[in-house]
Amino acid sequence: MKSEAASEDSPAQARVVVVDDHTTFAELLAQALNRETDLVHVGNAGSAGAAIELCREARPDVVVMDYHLPDGNGLDAAGAILQDAPQTRIIVLTGNPTPEILGRAAGSGICGFLPKDGSLRTLLDAVRFARPGSMVVHPSLLAAQQGAPPVPQPGNGVLTARERQVLALMAAGHDVRANARLLGISENTCRGYVKAILGKLGAHTQLEAVAIARTRRLLPEQPDA
């Protein structure tokens, strides 16, 4: 079904479809999306087939999709959606994927692979910052198993002590303003450190930088917020 919010969106808002056969989860996520000024929920689907049809009709910018669906899986559905609209950003939610599933996800064209029981803040950040051609895998999904394929690490730069401080604060969920205040530096200076961190780690977003840092053991292990 389509959300009433679909008629109220604006060009500045990212249009989001939710695909999950658990109605309560889908409705709660839709409500959370519509509380954000830069996001708008444009429809729910409860199966892979319904998701493909809805995406053809609604043309969302982002799809948040459960891996386990009644008539297939999220990666198969993602492939069909991306064949129709290659620039669609797709985030797949799962529990404890096998190495084979992670390996397939890496070549599927999706932008994110996140735990379904993870934090709402992490999911909303992924919806905002996911970009085609770059896949973020949440570190908890890699840590849950042996032999999982590593996240690509294109950046080879060594982080300075200050950059590591900023990275640790990023991982704790603080924004640039809070990080600048905690470190006693200006916001512009803090943004410069963030830009340097992204470049050295080969990341496109702060969320991706934190995920890469976790897999490269640049940060102490922490439970998911």
From TrEMBL:
Gene3D superfamilies: 3.40.50.2300. PANTHER family: TRANSCRIPTIONAL REGULATORY PROTEIN DESR, TWO-COMPONENT RESPONSE REGULATOR. It comes from Arthrobacter hankyongi. Residues 152-217 form the HTH luxR-type domain. Keywords: DNA-binding, Phosphoprotein. It holds the Pfam family Response_reg. Residues 15-131 form the Response regulatory domain. The modification 4-aspartylphosphate is found at residue 66. This is Response regulator transcription factor.
